[in-house]
Specification:
This protein is α+β, with helices and mostly antiparallel strands. The chain is built from four helices and four strands, in the order βαβββααα. It has a four-stranded mixed β-sheet, with helices on both faces. The longest helix is centred in the C-terminal third of the chain and has 72 residues, at 127-198. The protein is elongated.
Length: 226
Amino acid sequence: MTSAHEPSGGPTRWGDSGGSGGAPGSGDEPRQAVVFIHGVGDQPPMRSLRSFTQGIGLHRLFSSPDRITDSAELRRLSEPPRENRQACTEYFELYWADLEPDGDWRTTVLWYLRLLLRRDWWRRRGGAKFAVITFQLLVVAAVALVVWGVGGAFVQGGWGELAVCLASWQVAAGVILGVLGAVLGRFLRAYLSDAARYLTPRPANIQSRQAIRAEGLLLLRRLHSS
């Protein structure tokens, strides 16, 4: 591996020491690393990496402490020795779920709505385009029905009937939001909110975004210097 210098500055979650620990290969054998970055969600450490290695047919791997990251929650997975292999491959997981706090489910829903209601979906290609455009048309139809109902109430009964209509709509919206929060609140906060927070450069999200990137860069530099 090529050499790299660790960035200067204060200590991070991974400490200040490098080193790869005891590799199962020989000392002269080339080594290569595969870094798996898990997606959004609330998964425990190593679940994504183990699922990945099993998915590509690696069912027998050496598991040893991950001394690159200095984390007691992570392991280093290495391929066992075999004939005619060109390099010893080691697998690491960049775990960042603990660095992204749970978000508010209302903010998450609004972020997804803004994403789905963008006009550039009409210029794209692929199957997702038709699904999103169908959703947009349904939203437009729902808004039109609301306007029709409110306007009809005002025409028929004036301000008094309009107030009754708006009150009924408010009750219905409250019930729908309450059910949505009870059924999907945990899923939205712990899973989908990660994407909304990481992909949106708002002031409340910048610190966690920077922490995730910094640990990813530090992992790569330690792997190169090990």
